[in-house]
Specification:
With 253 residues, this protein is mainly β. The chain has 4 helices and 12 strands, in the order αααβββββαβββββββ. The protein has a 12-stranded antiparallel beta sheet with strand order 5-4-3-2-1-12-11-10-9-8-7-6. It starts with a helix and ends in a 13-residue tail after the last strand.
Length: 253
Amino acid sequence: MRNSFIPAALLSLMFAVCTFGQETTPKNGTAASSSTTAPAPVIAISATSTPADLAKAAFLAQGGEKFRTVQNMMLRGSAQLYPPNSAQSIPASFSIVTAGDKFRMEIDARPIFVFKQIFDGQNTYSSMPNVEAPPLSKFGMSVLKLYDQPGYKISALPDKKKLRAFRIVDPDGYTTDFFIDATTARVMSFLIYYQDHTMGTENSKFKDVDGVLVPWSFSQRFEMPQGAFFAEFSVKDVKLNQTLGEDVFAMPN
C-alpha cells in the first residue's frame, strides 16, 4: 500500500501547487499582503457566454496580466494525506519553489517518508526512485494563463451544478477541464489527465497576493487502481517574484 500511495501523493502535490511562474529573470519582490474579498468579475458571465468568454473571465479573475507574468513562487504549507480506502490521514508539511518549468519541492511526512525533488529545466533529482516530475507547465492554472496564445484550443463542457465549465487543450494535446463560479469567475475546480490518470482539484478558499489570486485551501482526488487517494492542503505562506539564489535548483552532489 505504501509504495503505491507515496508516488501518488507526491504527483498530486506537484500538480496542486506548481501553478505559477514564467521562466524569466527574477526581480526583487516582497512577501505579499492578502485578503479574502471577492471582487466582481471583470467580465460578466451569462447563459450565452462562450467557452472563450469563460476562459477570459477566469483569467482576469485570477489576476489577468499580473497572473500571467508571475516569474516565480515560493510556497509553504501543511497537508493531510489519505491513502486509498483509509479514513486515517498522514500529516505532512511542504515547501515549493517554482520558476517556469523549474521547481524544487520538499515534503515531510515523518516518520512515513521525507521527500525532495528538483528539476533545473533539464535534469531531475529525486530522493525517491521512480518518482519523476510531469511537465508542470502543461496543466492546470499554468494553462489558463496561456488560454489566448496560438495553438491553445478552448471548447465547451457541460455545466456542473452552478459552475460553468470549459476545456483547454495545449498545442501538445495536454488537457485541463475548468469549472468556474458563475458570479466571481474564480476557478473552483479543475481536472487534469496525465498518463491514463485523472486528478481533480477543488478550491475552497482564496487570497489575493499582490494582485494574483492564490488558492489557500483546497482538496485533491487522485484515482488509483487500489482506490482514490485524497488530500487536503492548507497554504501558510506565499511569496511571489523573489530574487532567487543560484543554488535553489542546484542538483545535490
